[in-house]
Write a structure and sequence with these properties.
elongated; five-stranded parallel sheet; 10 strands
């Protein structure tokens, strides 16, 4: 049996890493991928380890968390330190070490293995982890699907009932060639024929988050969210008088690159799951209060449907231009 090893930071995993690991998989019978991380690095090591396990479920993916020096100039015993760490964590000594960096030759030597260079000039897959961290939007095509939620630009749309949030989310997604996240609570409430009796409020926010994270994998650079957990806290306060702590905690952990706040200056349309006719201005004030409490700002959208859509498109274009993203 031929055993191979790939060592990397995978910060984040990208198409070049996939090529390297898949190259190795097609050479050896047994591949071990070592994800080496430091506590101070900008993308958590546990997250990178999870990504690589998802990307290579049939291979052995191990997480090396030793705070080792990162360059031979940093310590006179650099190579022996790495040899000790790797020999401790590897299930078996590798026969082949695959790498897209010149250091792979010395690493293979200290492990008693053969070095196999893979795309050293980065000509086959012209990208690096540094390039993606610096400008993920420009290098989107090189980011694996499971990694994209970490970098996608998220736009949330909140506001009172019957102010066009769903239509706007769908229109923006079509305009920018991406996907949008529907309001999951609507699905639940329609199934319950609009009943609020014994409603599981934490489930509403967990379902919204689950839907957002699942659809973020399909997004092209930007994701539009018809509502978000912060708006669920406003609904809970409006209908219950107070928000369950679990819902508040979930909302506090969510971040968005842009929040659009739809104002109630369009005609009200009643339906089965609208609950506060005549209270749109009060609800709008509660949204503003929740945003302030969370230390967030929002862009107000006013006017008829055409006007607010044009305003929203302009703000999203500005957001993407800030990140050097090609704007449709």
């Amino acid at each position: 049996m031929t055993r191979g090893m790939v060592l990397g930071k995978f910060m984040p995993p990208h198409a070049g890493h996939l090529y390297l690991c898949e190259f190795a998989k097609n050479w050896v019978d047994d591949l071990t991928i070592v994800v080496g991380t430091l506590a101070a690095e900008p993308i958590p090591g546990e997250l990178r380890h999870r990504w690589m396990r998802e990307l290579f479920p049939a291979d052995t993916v191990v997480h090396l968390t030793d705070e080792n020096p990162q360059d031979p100039s940093e310590h006179p015993d650099f190579w022996s330190i790495w040899q000790t760490s790797l020999e401790r964590i590897l299930p078996e000594r590798p026969d082949l070490v695959f790498a897209s960096e010149p250091y792979g030759a010395k690493l293979a030597e200290v492990l008693g293995a053969e070095f196999v260079p893979v795309d050293l000039p980065r000509a086959t897959i012209p990208v690096s982890g540094t390039a993606i961290r610096t400008d993920p939007i420009r290098h989107w095509e090189f980011i694996p699907r499971c990694v994209r939620p970490h970098f996608v630009r998220r736009v949330s749309i909140i506001g009172p009932e019957s102010t066009g949030k769903t239509t706007l989310a769908r229109t923006l997604a079509d305009t920018f060639g991406t996907v949008w996240v529907p309001e999951w609570a609507r699905t639940v409430l329609e199934h319950r024929n609009g009943s609020l009796d014994d409603l599981n409020w934490p489930n509403l926010v967990h379902g919204q988050i689950a839907s957002e994270e699942a659809l973020a994998r399909n997004a092209d650079r930007v994701l539009f969210c018809d509502t978000e957990p912060l708006l669920t806290t406003v609904w809970a306060e409006s209908l219950l008088g107070a928000c369950p702590p679990e819902v508040t905690a979930a909302a506090a952990g969510r971040t968005y690159d842009l929040t659009l706040l739809t104002e109630p200056d369009v005609p009200w349309v009643a339906d089965q799951v609208r609950y506060l006719p005549g209270e749109s201005e009060v609800f709008l004030d509660r949204c503003r209060t929740a945003l302030t409490r969370a230390g967030r700002t929002a862009v107000p959208l006013r006017g008829d449907w055409t006007a607010r859509t044009e305003q929203a498109v302009g703000h999203v274009r500005a957001l993407l231009q800030q990140t050097n993203c090609p704007v449709p």
